[in-house]
Amino acid sequence: MSIRPSVGPVQHPALQRHLTQRAENVQNRIADTITRFAGSMAFVYLSIIWFGLWIGLHVEKYPYGLLTMIVSLEAIFLSTFVMISQNRADEKRQVLADNQWKIVQYEEAQNDQLIELTKQILELTRAIHSVAITLQGQGGQGPSGS
Q1: pTM of the predicted model as reported, rounded to 2 decimal places
Q2: Nearest in space to 35 (alpha carbons), one of 87, 72, 91
Q3: 95, 19 in Cβ contact below 8 A?
Q4: Taking CA atoms, which of 28, 43, 84, 114 is between 20 and 30 Å from 62?
Q5: What CA–CA distance (Å, rounded) separates 84 from 31?
Q6: How far is CA 51 from CA 2, 30, 77, 113, in A?
């Protein structure tokens, strides 16, 4: 069961391939799980309970040196996980940008083909027009003869 509700399945094929490749690496799966949990309200509630119990049960005396160190370490790791999450988002954006670039290149090639076909059609139309004018100049006799 996921801690954070899903926003829906990834539908873009390029992103699906990227997520599949990412899931093959154990470190990526661990980092994704931790960032998913650290970015949830469950983490906030757990931290509140943890710190509240630490202070309420008098685990150590004020000024809470050990708790301060724990909170500092937590902040260091959380900032690292934020950077990991940002890198993951950048990777996704890059995958989408690369895919979009391929589509643009494909469409550009199709446009070039269409322009070439249009030029050929124009040349054929001009040739047919030229033949029609030539036939018209020969006395208006069409292909039926007489």
Answers
A1: 0.57
A2: 87
A3: no
A4: 43
A5: 7
A6: 24, 25, 17, 67
